[in-house]
Design a protein that fits this description.
single chain; alpha/beta; Enolase-like, domain 1; TIM Barrel; 2 domains; 10-stranded mixed β-sheet; 3-stranded antiparallel β-sheet; binds magnesium ion
Length: 384
């Protein structure tokens, strides 16, 4: 018998990103697990949710991951919601770390075993001019990336004007395609900022084949509207990074609204829920392209998920030769997966293969930081 003895939370700021790291300890020496929550904002609400779960998880057997998942999700009289599943995700990932260490196997062995030797990444590319876009893309191509995903560097200082943004991209993207050649996969993330009519206008104005996928062009609360948009444009969609359960993914997968599933293991409900979404996606021949914006715990958990899955496109990578978020600082994460060119090798050590230096956590004070609040010219609000 092994028992959970404590759950610690570390809301910290590491370089450019807030992270909520959790540690689950057990009554067995050196058997503990690391997890991370991916709400990306409002982290202190997740700390509160973890405290509620700790209230009945301490004393339980950490090997019973599926049973604990059900108890956490369904013990809430009103089930689900992003804050709660972000907490469940962190706990579920830490329980997998514990179970891997206990059985002395890498986490992918708990998920069905290894199906590939490495994980190929796409590089995130932030830009606010054509020159910056082209030069960063060349740097990434030279570094070995065969997939890049673009997003505008709008930090909220200037108002967002959709038609101006689209007009720029209509001019810049065909130049980028010419420079990159046809082997490069080019995606564009519009962060839910556009309307259906704006997306349709935009896609009608760029030549077919200029981009290979469009990520989150509109908000996602209404799958029916996304289905209509799906029929109006001719480019694959990449959706789902904020989905907080298999039920949220379901309409998007069953009707093939999305062509790539942007699963976030730290939001969707941990590895337990993520593997179910991977299987749902497989039924419709949809490849997973996981969201990975946090740090090494999210990266490691996602690598194990992808290692044990067949329907895999690319893993998102935010620390590249052109973007440095510093969220993977080796000082704070002395053990972590290492990017080699555009790839990660699969970690072969027991558990996740990641260590956070909790002794240094007090150096990392949490900041009440908002993602940029974006406004239009008339002062009304729009999504960042
Ligand atoms: Mg996105």
């Amino acid at each position: 018998m092994i028992k959970i003895t404590a759950i610690k939370t570390f809301p910290v700021r590491i370089e450019n990103g807030n992270q909520l790291i959790i540690k689950i300890e057990t009554d067995q020496k050196d058997i503990y697990g690391w997890g991370a929550s991916g709400l990306s904002g409002r982290e202190l609400a997740v700390v509160g949710a973890v405290k509620h779960y700790a209230n009945f998880i301490i004393g339980k057997d950490p090997r019973r991951i599926g049973a604990l998942w059900q108890q956490m999700y369904r013990s809430q009289y009103f089930e689900g919601g992003r804050v709660l599943t972000a907490a469940i995700s962190a706990i579920d990932i830490a329980l997998h770390d514990i179970k891997g260490k206990l059985f002395e196997v890498p986490v992918y062995e708990l998920l069905g075993g290894k199906q590939r030797e490495f994980i190929e990444c796409f590089a995130s590319l932030k830009f606010d001019s054509k020159e910056e876009l082209i030069s960063k893309a060349h740097t990434l191509k030279k570094a070995g990336f065969t997939a890049i995903r673009l997003y505008e560097a709008s930090e909220g200082a200037a108002p967002f004007v959709a038609r101006e943004s689209m007009a720029n991209l209509v001019d810049w993207l065909p130049v980028l395609r010419k420079e990159m050649g046809n082997v490069m996969t080019i995606g564009l993330d519009y962060h839910h900022r556009l309307t259906v009519s704006e997306v349709t206008t935009f896609m009608n104005r760029i030549p077919a084949g200029t981009i290979d996928f469009l990520e989150e062009p509109i908000r996602d609360e209404n799958p029916q509207v996304y289905q209509q948009l799906r029929q109006m444009i001719n480019v694959p969609l990449a959706l789902g990074e904020e989905f907080a359960s298999k039920w949220q993914f379901w309409p998007y997968i069953k009707d093939s609204i999305t062509q790539y599933a942007r699963i976030d293991v730290c939001n969707v409900g941990g590895l337990t829920e993520a593997m179910k979404v991977v299987a749902m996606a497989e039924t419709n021949y949809i490849d997973v392209m996981p969201h990975n914006p946090l740090g090494p715990i999210c990266t490691a958990a996602t690598i194990h998920m992808l290692a044990a899955s067949s329907n895999v496109a690319w893993l998102e990578e935010i620390n590249t030769p052109v973007e440095w978020c510093g969220t993977n600082s080796e000082k704070f994460y002395p053990v972590q997966p290492k990017l080699e060119g555009a790839r990660y090798k699969i970690p072969e050590t027991p558990g996740l293969g990641v260590e956070f230096n909790e002794d240094l956590a007090s150096e990392l004070s949490f900041e009440m930081k908002e993602t940029p609040h974006l406004f239009k010219k008339d002062g009304s609000f729009t999504n960042w």
